[in-house]
Amino acid sequence: MEQHFSAVEEELRSIKAEALMLRQRNARLTDEINYRIKSEMKMESALTGIKTELEKTQQEFDQTETVARDNAPREGGEIRTVNHEIVDFLYGLTHEYLSLKETLRRERELSAEARQAATESANHYQKVATDLMTKLNSLQTREEALYDEQCSSEWRKLQQDLDSWTRRTFRDKSVMGYMTLTNLRRTSSTIIIPEDMLKNVQGKRAYIQGFIAGIIFDTVFRRLFVLSPTIRSGRLLTAVGKVIRGSESSQAWETWRSTTSRALGDRHTFSNRRLNNACNQLVQSVEALFSEYYSPGVQKEVVNKGLRQIFEDCVAFKKKLEYQEFDYDFRRSLPGAAYSSEYMNSSNYVEEDGSIVQISIWASLYKVAFNNEELLIEPEAVWTSQPDPVGDAEQT
Fold first, then answer.
1. In the chain, what are the domains?
2. Is the pTM for the entire model greater than 0.70?
């Protein structure tokens, strides 16, 4: 949790720094707009003064023209000189008027641009502030943010819990010796198990783990929402989720996913019958198939309680992942798949090129970003067999 709060504080500092920069920019734009407004007012005042002076001079010029016509025989030379000076002055005033008018037009354009920039900056600042509040609300409502190391640790612990339960329940090697394909098929004629795995206790335990993990994978980890009350409702929510995820809004997708998961957790509104039935079926299946091989002195009630606890812990972990910012994907290989040292760990250390997966003991865990970029959090645990020498010979 300390890492979580440190990351949140760092993100808040970054957003606050951006907000401060935007406020400073807004202040500069406001000062520029005020300066432009003052300049515009001064120019309008100057233009008004020039226009008034121009009108006054025009009147004086008209009066001088009238006097010149009345006194033309007597004072012609002096009048022409005065008229020439007045005309030059009028031309000068007109040029200054037009120049100031063009300057005022340009100032108004700059003022409009500054106002537009200020509006855009204010809108951006508002968006940053809104995003910050949304992020804060999301962080406050999210019960616990998981980092990659925490996800990996909790995922490994679930596998270790199942491994420990299997070792405790099936620790007697002499009793496990009766676990043969013939005896297993007396209980279930449809059971499929690689004969190589029945050669030793380790292989038999691995098969039991894979059998249990497969049921948990199908009922818990394959579903978008682990608490969806029915299979039909789960399919409906998955279809709705695909539409929302395709909306190109990661925030909308994360909000919908986390809030829907929380809503499904309301036991007053939604029934938990599907998971209860799945857990009961898991316990009953394990008891029906493997109870003959329980170690002496092991009580079935204790065995069933431990298995139920593992199932419930898996449900809690899946539910926790549904609250996270990223998606998480669980993948389980089918028997016969090619072994990959990059994405798998062989529990029996058969890792040669061309090795084949006999059974998936525990699924792999991936973190998936909104743009579908993937990060392998924890590789898949598998039981493998060596490549078929006959197949190799045929290839050569």
1. 2-138 (1.10.287.1700), 148-327 (no CATH)
2. no
